[in-house]
Amino acid sequence: MAEIIMFHPKEETFEFWREVGCEDGMPPESIKEWAVDGVPPRPLLYKVGLGMGYLELPQVEVPRTGLTHDLLDSKSVYIFDCNCDVFVWIGKKSTRLVRAAALKLSQEIFNMISRPSTALVNKALEGTEPQIFKTKFVGWDDVIAVDFTRSAESVAKRGADIMKILRDTEMKVDLSALFMPRQPPMPKDETDTLLSEWNEDLDGMEAFILEGKKFVRLPEGELGNFYSGDCYVFLCRYWVPREFEENEEEGDEKEPEDDYQCVVYFWQGREASNMGWLTFTFSLQKKFESLFGEKLEVVRMYQQQENLKFLSHFKKKFVIHHGKRKDVVPEGMRVHPKLYQLRSNGSALCTRCVQITASALVLNSEFCYILKVPFDNEEKSGIVYVWHGRKCDPSEGSLAEDIAHNMFNVNKQYTVTVLTEGKEPENFFWVALGGKKPYDTEADYMRYSRLFRCSNEKGYFTVSEKCSDFCQDDLADDDIMILDNGTNVFLWVGSRCSDVEVKLAFKSAKVYVQNMRVKQPEWPRKLLLTLKTKESRKFTKCFHGWGKYKQAPA
Q1: Angle (nearest 5°) at CA 364 between 360 and 370
Q2: Phi, psi angle pair for 163, to nearest 5°
Q3: In the predicted model, what is the mean pLDDT of residues 164-186?
Q4: Torsion angle of alpha carbons 133, 137, 138, 140, nearest 10°?
Q5: pLDDT tens digit string along 427-437?
Q6: CA–CA distances in Å: residue 336 to residues 359, 406, 434
């Protein structure tokens, strides 16, 4: 391995002087400097060619700006006279005869004038030129272009040759999602049809919850209650209607029974570790596979990222609590009131009742809320308030009351009280929320909110839109997100994204803002920047059940 050692004048070592010819290792008494009239001559570049029976050696005209490496042609051979060195540059496509002639001519040129004793004739092959040769040319940059926005997977798929990628893709950028219209909410009749059809096909559902290191059956009365610190397994059996062949009729005797399919849904709360999934794959999953074989399908889901078919089985009564199902309140600590917000995103099928921070600041006149105020630490008795915002959907109001009666008051030991905005009692309700405070009376962002993801995982920069049922965990740490709430467009920057992604996403966000100003001039957007953990209330209210960012799973 070569090593570069630097010396200052008069600080050279004995080994240095021995290498340059001083056998005793001592520096000479005087060092003779070599120069031609004090000014080194300009380098000369000759092109070696074959004429009519003789060799040609025309001098290449050098521009005033200096030599550039594009003067060298791969089909030719050049002699480069730098006075103190002579280089023979050999192009990859040059002929053998010209190469041999150039090497002989270079020796003759070398001997024509007086040169220092250190001068040499050097051969430089195209593509492997020594660095000292490259320094004679202007702009011969050896810096390798590196695309820090590409992932290892992208390099494996498309290679590392940047020039080839540029030719193939011409730096493809896909911003089409920014110009697409917002996904319209699912009509009520379509929602009701899907809800009915999917539940008609469901023959049965068994629920399990992870307790300790094993899964146990979940009591039927707790179905629809989920805890963010737990993992659940749902075994669903679906009837699959038999398809008749062309030569068969439905009235034929000995008609075989309809087939069935089993789907196992694994639900993981955002505060739960991956140990639940590992426990499932090595226990229940193996048992189900032995029972149902090829008819079994396993679907893994995360909190607030459930698929519509799974949500439909709970008929809009989908409640998510903080913590674990069997959390024990430490002795001496008081149980605090719990506030839940009922909200649907894009479709009534995506209706969830999620626990949020118990504060009057998070109330909104367009939603319904459930406030559970226990009288003791064992939560055996208390009051459940159902708060109807004055602009809430009446159907959601009825649903909130149903959830309060049947899911929050199972043992009938709580008093359920329905409140209309503006008619709240001063004693328990506002005290439980930490006092009356100003809150939002409009939720226009529900009709305009859109979330876009800016990424280059495909090998080029692309912007894609998340579905309208997005959540906090859709904010990818290694990407840039664009959130439109109808008033502001936020550029959310993850902690692991690259500078290139930030620049491209910023330009994309500006394009989106300009486009929306044309499409919706009555709603001019303002572009704002926000960083992870620094989000404002204007940003977080677009996400149902915003809370602390989840830690890396164990």
Answers
A1: 65
A2: -65, -40
A3: 80
A4: -50
A5: 789 999 999 99
A6: 12, 21, 11
Cα–Cα–Cα angle for 99, 102, 105, rounded to 5 degrees:
155
CA torsion angle 11 13 16 18 (round to 10): 130
**Per-residue pLDDT for 197 more than 80?**
yes
Q: How sure is the predictor about 70, in pLDDT bands with cuts at 50, 70 and 90?
A: confident
Nearest CA-CA partner of 126 in 90, 75, 80? 90
**537: nearest Cα among 496, 494, 503, 487:** 487
CB-based contact 396:342 (threshold 8 Å): yes
3-state secondary structure of 360: helix
Q: Find, among 267, 259, 268, the residue nearest to 293 by Cα.
A: 259
Whether the Cβ atoms of residue 76 and residue 94 lie closer than 8 Å to each other: yes
Structure tokens at 28: 């000479």
* CB within 8 Å of 414: residues ≥ 6 apart: 372, 381, 382, 383, 384, 408
Taking the CB of residue 33, how many other CB atoms lie within 10 A of it?
5
Q: Decide: residue 219, CB within 10 A, 0-12 exposed, 13-18 middle, 19+ buried.
A: exposed
CA distance 480 to 506: 9
How far is it, in rounded angstroms, from Cα 417 to Cα 144?
A: 70
Query: Quick count: other Cβ atoms within 10 Å of Cβ 399?
Result: 20
Alpha-carbon distance 42 to 83, whole Å? 8
- How far apart CA 231 and CA 227 sit, in angstroms, is 8
- Residue reference for tokens 């679907």: 299
CA triple 112-115-116, angle to 5 deg:
160
* Residues contacting residue 269 through CB under 8 Å, at least 6 positions apart: 226, 227, 228, 229, 230, 231, 303, 320
Distance CA 528, CA 536 (A): 11
Please give the model's pTM, rounded to 2 decimal places: 0.69
**479, 501 Cβ separation under 8 angstroms:** yes
**Computed from CA positions of residues 100, 105, 107, 108, in that sequence, does the dihedral angle turn out positive or negative?**
positive
Cβ(272)–Cβ(327) below 8 Å = no
What the block records as the tokens of 269 is 């709360």
